Amino acid sequence: KQWYQRRVAITAGQVIASEHACKSTDEGALMMGIGTNNAIKVNFDMITPRELVDLIEKNNIFMIISTFEISEDGTVDNIDKFSKIMRKYKIWHHIDARQGGTALFSSTYRYLTDAFQDADSITIDFQTCLNLNQQCSLLLVKDGEQLTNCSSVTTPFQSGRRTDGFKLWLCDQLDDLDLHASSMFERYLEPYEALSEESDES
């Protein structure tokens, strides 16, 4: 009788991410066990739909990660042209809006987040974009049942839960969240607007 199990070859999945993506993309790839070499970085402004299809068909792509105003360089990835491709190949679209997500809570800038409605998931870090105490992050998922099915474990007892979401609620109660979000979003835009003006003058 064999005392070991025959190993089954499993092809690691890959994710496609913006070349401007936060370092947490590589960290996530390590945590999932697929390795950073399976986090394929691309320039979404330069890659064509045909090139993206070729990349998908030659690999085992299960997720595309775009960015919405990352603090390092203010990058916004416009990947609307790839929406039909992602639906056709059933690829999960995640938007990293850890800082730019502030616009979602601003009546002035909310129109910039129209693309959010087509995403499967979105992350926003309020300790980054609203200066709330750490840790206060938000994960929005279009289909909550999928998240429940893959990560829920029932127990016969009540386990401890951190109440990080209370910080955002308290901010809304003690301050005008709309006004605060608008102010913070404008503050983050200032250096990029200054660079744009310098470029126009030159």
What report would you give on this structure?
The structure is a single chain. The chain has 7 helices and 7 strands, in the order βαβαββαββαβααα. With 202 residues, it is an alpha/beta fold. The longest helix is centred in the last third of the chain and has 25 residues, at 177-201. The model is unreliable at 1-10 (pLDDT under 50).
The average pLDDT value, as a whole number, equals 78
Helix-strand pattern: EHEHEEHEEHEHHH
Helical coverage, percent range: 25-40%
Category by helix and strand content: alpha/beta
Rounded to an integer, what's the Rg over CA atoms?
A: 20 Å
Rough shape?
globular
**Main beta sheet:** 7 strands, mixed
Give the termini distance in whole angstroms: 78 Å
Instruction: List low-pLDDT spans.
Output: 1-10
For the secondary structure, the number of strands is 7
Strand content: 15-25%
Number of helices: 7
